[in-house]
Design brief:
Blueprint lengths: L4 E6 L3 H13 L3 E7 L3 H11 L3 E3 L2 H5 L6 E4 L6 H10 L3 E5 L6 H14 L3 E4 L6 H12 L5 E11 L17 H17 L5 E9 L5 E11 L3 E8 L1 E12 L3 E4 L9 E5 L2 E5 L6 H13 L9 H20 L3 E2 L2
Parallel strand pairs: 1-2, 1-4, 2-3, 4-5, 5-6, 7-10
Antiparallel strand pairs: 7-11, 8-9, 8-15, 9-10, 11-12, 12-13, 13-14
Helix pairs in contact: 1-8, 4-5, 5-9, 7-9
Protein name: Deoxyfructose oxidoreductase
Organism: Paenibacillus abyssi
GO molecular function: nucleotide binding; oxidoreductase activity
Length: 329
């Protein structure tokens, strides 16, 4: 049997059960060896459903298991820093669900802790590992659509009736900017290979949902007068789209983060569909993570990228709550 990276899962969140665990199991390099929950019965139920051999009734017990190489952390946002640092101190590599932390200061502490422990830390933006984004960057860099004039991204869904959802706990890092707004922000930063200069965000703050941002619309100002306009929401119809506007053409990604990977390119020569392979993004993410752990390649997205991303989210949240434009250093 080929060598495998042995994963432990801290928690039974729906994203872990629905997507990340099956992705690791489908990957070429990983196996899910254990899962922990603060309710042992919940860990046992999930393990039985997904074929995971070991279960623990606490996160501490899993971290004490010397057979585990890496952990995936899908816990609520306010727990990311604590358990990433504790995992690093236990010698485990860490894949942490996005957003990596509540703010840039927490993210920086996580990066430093993992560096000190000599373990790899990655933020779980699975979509970045699908080869279509390499192809999109190739088209942009080829000059086919000319100079980039703007990017628009949207990620919305409607879960507002579920008032007990962790997304609606402000002190736990709830809200649409944390949950889905981070996607178009990360995509723009990745495609432009630049960091923003300022942000302005307008949000629907809902008293019914602990005053978190249930919908937000914003502009993120990048160098060279390029703007990302985005909207995100948890109380709106579903969509997850991205559009890159150039002087000579447009790239449209109808399912930018989840769903059909194909996208469209429009130029003076017409509109074409770029066919992309149907690949499990979560499996690709797991294999990319393992390749870094094993020293086969450098991280495509360094952990410092997560800190930079959190600085933008910090500014967006500040803008939304203070109703003003925020400049970034």
């Amino acid at each position: 049997m080929a060598k495998k990276l042995r994963w432990g899962i801290l928690g039974c969140a729906s994203i872990a059960i629905r997507s990340v665990i099956p992705g690791i199991q489908e990957s070429e390099t990983g196996e899910v060896a254990a899962i922990a929950s603060r309710e042992l019965s919940k860990a046992q139920e999930t393990a039985a459903k997904l074929g995971i051999p070991k279960t623990y009734g606490s996160y501490e017990e899993l971290l004490a298991d010397d057979s585990i190489d890496a952990v995936y952390i899908p816990l609520p946002n306010h727990l990311h820093m604590e358990w990433t640092i504790r995992a690093a101190e236990a010698g485990k590599h860490v894949l942490c669900e996005k957003p990596i932390a509540l703010n840039a200061a927490e993210a920086q502490r996580m990066v430093e802790a993992c560096a000190a422990a000599g373990v790899h830390l990655a933020e779980a933006f699975m979509y970045r590992h699908h080869p279509r984004y390499d192809r999109i960057k190739e088209i942009i860099q080829s000059g086919e659509i000319g100079e980039i004039r703007g990017i628009h991204g949207a990620f919305t869904f409607n879960n507002a009736s579920n008032k007990t959802n962790v997304r609606y706990r402000k002190d736990w890092g709830g809200g649409s900017i944390y949950d889905v707004g981070c996607y178009p922000i990360s995509a723009a930063r990745m495609l432009l290979e630049a960091e923003p200069e300022a942000v302005t965000v307008h949000a629907l703050l809902s008293p019914e949902h602990d005053n978190v941002d249930m919908m937000a619309s914003g502009i993120v100002e990048f160098p060279n007068a390029v703007g990302l306009t985005f909207d995100c929401g948890m109380w709106a119809a579903f969509r997850n789209t991205l559009e890159v506007l150039g002087t000579d053409g447009i790239i449209e990604v109808p399912s930018a983060y989840i769903g059909n990977p194909n996208f469209f390119v429009t130029t003076k020569d017409g509109r074409r569909e770029e066919q992309q392979p149907e690949l499990n993004q979560y499996a690709l993410q797991a294999d990319a993570f393992t390749s870094v752990v094993w020293g086969d390649q450098a991280a495509k997205f360094a952990s410092a990228d997560a800190v930079a991303g959190m600085k933008v989210i910090d500014a967006c949240l500040q803008s939304a709550y203070e109703r003003k434009r925020i400049t970034l250093s």
